[in-house]
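Justification of computing resources. Each target in the renewal requires a structure prediction run like the one illustrated here; the chain below, 109 residues long, is used simply to show the kind of job we budget for.
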Amino acid sequence: MSEKMRLVESGVEKSPNEREVMQKVDSILEGRGYTVLKQVEDDEGLSRLDMASSDSDGQRLDISYTRDRVTTDGEKIPTIHQTLYYGDMPVGAGTQYDYVGLGEWKEIP
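Resulting structure tokens:
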């Protein structure tokens, strides 16, 4: 597990390390298992992580983490988002979480 993290000029953590990402994923899944579909790391640590799981009703639920989601303002923000499925068809997005620093995530409905 990579413990690397990027810093902004002020020295405040800008991106979560892999442990912080997995803690948030575990809280989203509430103990349900998952399968890692894709994991990408670079010299700055975890860059992308795609996982498959199920929601509380047993329907497929994919969870993805990306370190550099670009906002409409051009800012890059680490983000976890969910894709909901009915059978094999994606039918919507679940809650999104943006990383705000120091181990904290902000829920974006």
